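User: Let's play a game. I give you a shape written as tokens, and you guess the letters that built it. Ready? Here's round one.
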């Protein structure tokens, strides 16, 4: 298929389903669905993700998209996200990487060798993400076989953070509500201090949210936020102003709420 100027492929990878879309920066429509496929999900760390590879081959026919750029957004549940405090006296990159490996081991208990980690650097508190090497192997294998150009592979939280962190107001925390998980970006002194993925109970209301923010603030040793700025399908009850704090929701594209979880992943962070 011939590629128009500003067009590219975006793949959303959820647990059990993948969704492929064509994105266009300058031509309408901005998003065009190309296909979805289900697969049997592997263990997040120890599976070989062969079923995922077969699903990718199904929705990416050989020869059809040769030369196209491909961007991949992963469900946060398939990744590991964590923050690392700068080690005392650290002077080299190796010092920070060693601290990150120790922190990863203590948080998740997984063997670091099964995961590929990368970082978004902040000299005061580097932010790390890890993805199963087996998952990356399937993505790169199929991309190479279909002659696609991999632009990025990133978790959904990172896409939303990159899109919206510049719009956060002073003192506000960032939140992403996806299905039944609230991922909090805890901010302090204008920087990201921690990332916390929390299960949301059915019917959780304003009181639950207030208690959750207060508990996370206590755990991180910071003040609870007066404002939580969110993306996702936020319950209306969370938006009712109260004395303790307020919620604001970043705008989502029309019709996004009707999409499958994998399709919403593909839309994360906009077309760019």
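Assistant: Ready! My guess for every position:
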């Amino acid at each position: 298929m011939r590629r128009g100027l500003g067009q590219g492929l975006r793949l959303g990878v959820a647990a059990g389903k993948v969704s492929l879309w064509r994105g266009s920066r300058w031509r309408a429509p901005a998003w065009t669905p190309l296909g979805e496929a289900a697969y049997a999900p592997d263990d997040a760390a120890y599976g070989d993700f062969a079923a995922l590879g077969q699903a990718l081959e199904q929705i990416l026919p050989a020869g059809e998209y040769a030369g196209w750029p491909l961007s991949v957004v992963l469900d946060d549940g398939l990744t590991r996200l964590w923050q690392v405090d700068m080690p005392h006296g650290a002077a080299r990159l190796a010092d920070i990487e060693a601290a990150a490996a120790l922190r990863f081991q203590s948080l998740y208990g997984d063997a670091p060798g099964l995961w590929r980690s990368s970082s978004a650097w902040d000299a005061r508190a580097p932010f790390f993400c890890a993805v199963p090497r087996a998952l990356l192997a399937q993505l790169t294998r199929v991309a190479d076989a279909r002659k696609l150009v991999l632009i990025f592979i990133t978790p959904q939280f990172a896409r939303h953070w990159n899109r919206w962190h510049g719009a956060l107001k002073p003192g506000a925390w960032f939140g992403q509500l996806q299905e039944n998980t609230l991922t909090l970006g805890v901010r302090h002194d204008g920087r990201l201090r921690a990332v916390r993925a929390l299960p949301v109970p059915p019917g959780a209301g304003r009181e639950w949210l207030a208690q959750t923010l207060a508990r996370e603030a206590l755990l991180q040793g910071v003040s609870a936020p007066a404002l939580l700025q969110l993306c996702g399908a936020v319950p209306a009850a969370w938006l009712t102003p109260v004395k303790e704090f307020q919620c604001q929701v970043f705008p989502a594209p029309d019709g996004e709420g009707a999409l499958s979880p994998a399709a919403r992943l593909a839309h994360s962070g906009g077309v760019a």
